[in-house]
């Protein structure tokens, strides 16, 4: 082919800019396009006309997903190591080791486990100590090696993904509020039952992960199935678990996750803090109900 033939062949030039030589074809219409007209697609470049047609033919689900991803992120990706997750695991493991010391272990367990009557100084018994801190320290004590092992494994699996997504302080707030939610549910629904373990907090992390993942458009089917199976196990006879703590932690965790998603913008940080304080205040207010029911 002579140089004249080459120049007369329009396929050697961008169809939108005839003066620009190019050898790149649109993957849909196969017309030649210059670098300015190229939009990178999944399997090659696309010309502006094909891109406009592709956007016009999007399904409602695709448009909804694009709107979500084009907004400011529901939560910022802070990256880094999940320091809070590791710290919680370390403190919980240390507490469990203390509980194994003969003689001293019983003192640790009794001082940290949650038994609803111990948070009410007016409970009608002089033998019941006043231990309000146990609404949170319950997450530090466990009944067996398998109990703490499974809880800490779940915390590690969830925390290493969720903590970098939320940031350390948000993740810590989520964990603490989920523990509180589990204790409040136990006080309301099973007042005289002593409980131990971080299961309420773990279910709270599951709930938050489910809500945030759904908001970001992620596939949360696997999380929902695991969560459902664990909830069902709590209701089966023969399993000595506190389903009340599970449900309480799950509800609070999902609520906190929704707050994080709804206040994703940096300018709503103040609102986010106020809503978290409101959740904590509401849970503490619910602790005023058991005396009316059980005293």
Q: Would you write up a description of this structure?
A:
The protein has helices at residues 3-8, 48-56, 60-70, 83-99, 104-112, 134-137, 145-166, 168-189, 199-215, 221-235, 243-262, 269-286, 289-294, and strands at 39-41, 44-46. The chain is mainly α. A two-stranded antiparallel ribbon has the order 1-2. A hairpin with a 2-residue loop joins strand 1 and strand 2. The protein is elongated, with a radius of gyration of 28 Å. Mean pLDDT is 84; it is low at 72-77.
Largest sheet: 2 strands, antiparallel
Radius of gyration: 28 Å
Strand order of the largest sheet: 1-2
**CATH class identity of the largest domain:** Mainly Alpha
What is the approximate shape? elongated
Our measurement of the CA-to-CA distance between the termini, rounded to an integer number of angstroms, reads: 100 Å
- Tell me the series of helices and strands, N- to C-terminal: HEEHHHHHHHHHHHH
How large is the share of residues in beta strands? under 5%
Can you tell me the number of structural domains? 2
The CATH architecture of the largest domain: Up-down Bundle
